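Summarise this fold before class:
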Amino acid sequence: MTQPTDIRREDHRPLLPDEHLRTALRLATSGLPVLPLRKGKVPFGNCRACAQNACGGRPNMKTAGPCRCPGVCHAWAAATTAPAVIASPPWVAAWRQAVCVGYHPGGAGLTVVDLDNADAIAWAQGALPATRIVATTRGEHWIYRGTMRSVNGVRDGVDIKSTMSYARYLGPGADAMTALPDGVRALAVKKPSTARPAPRAVAVPARAGNGECRHRTPAYLERGICMAEQRITEASGAVHTTVYRTFLAVLSAHGRCECLTETHIARLFIAAQAKGESPRHCTEAWTNARTALGM
């Protein structure tokens, strides 16, 4: 992804609303899905048409629903690279009230490791591979190529912002961007509680084999992912519906035993995007499938 030019002022004066809009348009052309952030550096709330879940989306702005509101109602899920949307009247009104420009890292295929203090930075310097670094008010953003689940508080002063999240744009940063390391992915893995034994796989009747949970059998999972990729790839119409139903089937079979990894999910997203689905639509379909199954 081509990195946009750093437009921060040397005297650190706030940007004017028109400059927010110009910055957003420039970032969008380089592939960053953008959104305006209001006072407190948070997304704008729902409009009247979307309030109280009236639009069919979900009121929690951290998640995405099916709403296609032309405004900026759904936080990271509203982030876009479409100039016509960014410069539309509802968005221009939001840019005039915005305090800064935000972006959706996962929508650009990126992960931001947000280091909020000196101790967090020192930890990263010793534990993580070097990558592009952007200075923040209190610390640094370390930006990697690749996406993963967003999690706050993985360590003291360390948040991960990628899918279903947003970050402030503070400039292009310095140094070359490197691939997302396993060390960052591992931070998002929930460790078993020490207060009780880790749960064991439950044995279920199986057609063949030694009686182990088929959901935890690598061959069974791999076959399921391959079939899901094939189903999406061979879709001749109604791609969005096919993607959603395929995600639903995968989660129904494998979602509750935690055998799915970020790699498996990425394979499904890649197959869907090859059929024309946007990263945002993929994330929406995945989120809606999880909600439908009560996950």
The mean pLDDT is 79. DSSP finds nine helices and nine strands in the chain. Strands lie at 34-38, 42-43, 100-103, 110-115, 132-135, 140-145, 151-155, 158-161, 167-168.
